[in-house]
Amino acid sequence: MGTLDSQTITAANTATITARELCELVDRCPSFFTLHRGELPQPQLVHQGVGRPAHHYSLQELADFALSHTSHLSDAECRLRCAIASLAKREQP
Prior knowledge:
Elements: E1 9-10, E2 16-18, H1 19-26, H2 30-35, E3 44-47, E4 54-58, H3 59-70, H4 75-91
Parallel strand pairs: 1-3
Antiparallel strand pairs: 2-4, 3-4
């Protein structure tokens, strides 16, 4: 069994979302996050007490990331972009 590195944290001491939950939330496959890992916040290993640690994203880091990419948009523009993206994704074969 390997040693956990310094980026390993416990789920109890931070607000995080698993990579799987994030995929479901944004309706993307895991490969999307693999392809864009250089643009996204660094995931952390979280040990949940049983089994291997899983990759989690800090909710604060994701919020900061989203804000840094949308702060120039109004609330209405953000909602419109999300709606259009959702429709476009549904129309793809």
